């Protein structure tokens, strides 16, 4: 409105400018009047004061006295102060001052016009003196004879006379401001009313708006009529002329005289409110809506709109059909392929198509597709999904194997890769040739029309989809054929994705199962139970192993490779194989973890150099070695959750095991923790999938695990069952490996140990002691081979090793002979030549023992050999 572009804005600005001009004119007139009044007041006051002082008694006598200043100066100052003038000056006829407000000016020449006063006349003049613009009057002082004996001048500055004017001007300005505000408010109200009436448009814009409105009015596909309160037609657009058949001169005539049908004419003439009243006008059904025009303050009358419902119904039917098809395609994109399961995806297609598109829908896929393989065009198909409005249709059942003949619509679709439309099945001999008896049953059931669409994924034809119609009497048409083709094309992408996933999942599961231990090895140190649960989606890299070691010891290992799929499973297999190989070296846990860390670093380096490969990230491992003789367990871990320990009394703890970095980081040493386990203790190893997921922190998971272990049964199997029942509410998003081992101790009567003096003659003493011990164990038949093995091992220790030397013999599942010495040199098996005097001892040991080897200790080594018990 303030911009002035609209009519309202222009009116508002004009009113404001007029009021401003009036205010400015009033202020200027007041200022001029005040200035004139001020000057006149100054003339009158100065003249009155001068005449009063000149005619005052004693003024003449003072002028004639010897010292006029002494008499007149006090009088003049008193008169000046009482009269509020700026000065009262008395002077002689020569203009020399006798009085002045400033004493230093007395005796000096007066500045002003004196001639009229010397002639006996009073004079008033405006001058600019030392104190600014002023008005001064000069009056003669006459003696009784009428002779001028002196002069009196009184003066006042104009600034000191403006008191009244200063009080009037603010009042006038305030009144002007109030008038301006009132005028502005009034102008704003008027402009606001105009703004509502003109909608903020200027004259040219209003003209253009009316031109546009007129063009739109006559261009819309809806009739518009405006009738005044007398029933006269004021306006009718082109569509109204067409729909009602109005004459060219209809505007300005009464609606009852336009030749309309009585019902329509009566409605238009009455002006009553109507909503979607249907009137038959010629061969058209018109929907009429009518409203009055005076409800918002407009002129009395009514406005009516007309729609041809005959055309609208046809258009709305086609629009509704198109909308339903678009919705179906949208739902197909959202609802088909929610799972990576081939069968479920096929079922989702039939659930979407029935009953929205067809009364029955079937999906037939090649058997290889269901297993994730490539389809074979020569193979039979399997009915994978069947959906219908009823369950008793005589169609092939789900699971039934089908071979379509070449003349059938399904056979043609599979051969050509194109959809086939059979509008009338009763007249389709090629379809009936598939199964004459079943075809007749289908036709008798009421199914009369068919569309078949091949399931194509690129160049592969995965199967065929069939849509059957029975309820609607109209057959399928070409538009529905196109819709079916689009629907199946979207489903084919999801089915192919599910097929590929099934293939990769099967490969990964097969690989993973081949890499995990199938049976636990025989050993007597631990009673073991385990569980392995794959993730809900895909396969992961969790693994475990139980590895017998020398000296009746057993190694337990649990590892985890972060991620899922073939890469994680393959990496897990590489790590498990590496652990098997490193275990053969009989290394301490920390050294074995260090070698595994170095291996992962090399794998990462190789994978990084290979384009498109991903390094091993997040691989963890826990390695524990249990010795049933000392009941000690040595544990090391690399980024893995700590083990849990259940004591024989049922208490649960998580031992402090130094947490090394995950495998592959390198640069940091690993540490071990040594635990002394009472017989019957249970050591629980697990992967992080058991205690951690997206909805649960690891601390919460450990607390839950502790609570479950505290109430678990005493056997490892009961422990596994209790833990999984309490920890898992649904299938985990990560793999879970759980290993529970209950410890056993090798009884003291199954262990024999002797020190060996540094004397070759001690070999005979060892043989005798061994023979006695074997006799006590009832193993006399092993005496010869055992004496021979120990003789060779002790002799090697005396000859090549360092003391002290001692021999230990263990009766476990095997008979184990061990020779300890403090030397770090390792014997090697070799073939001795005919001329060699020695070198055949280890060869003899290797032939007599089932297994033999060397185990290094912090100080020295152990050479051991195992023999099976008879």
Helical percentage? 40-55%
Rg calculated over all Cα atoms: 60 Å
Instruction: Count helical runs.
Output: 22
Helix/strand-derived class? alpha+beta
Taking the alpha carbons of the first and last residues, their distance comes to 115 Å
Main beta sheet: strand number and arrangement?
Answer: 6 strands, antiparallel
**pLDDT averaged over residues:** 83
Q: Can you tell me the overall shape?
A: flat
Number of strands: 31
Main location: membrane
Protein name: Histidine kinase
InterPro entries: Bact_Sigma-Reg, GAF, GAF-like_dom_sf, HATPase_C_sf, HATPase_dom, PAS, PAS-like_dom_sf, PPM-type-like_dom_sf
Membrane topology: Multi-pass membrane protein
Characterise this structure.
By secondary structure, the protein is α+β, with helices and mostly antiparallel strands. Helix content is 41%, strand content 23%. The chain has 22 helices and 31 strands. The strands form six sheets. The chain has a six-stranded antiparallel β-sheet, sandwiched between helices. Strands 17, 18, 19, 20, 23 and 24 form a six-stranded mixed β-sheet that branches. Strand 8 (284-292) and strand 9 form a beta hairpin. Helix 20 packs antiparallel against helix 21 (783-800) and helix 21 (783-800) runs antiparallel to helix 22. The chain is flat. The protein starts with 6 loop residues before the first helix and ends with a strand.
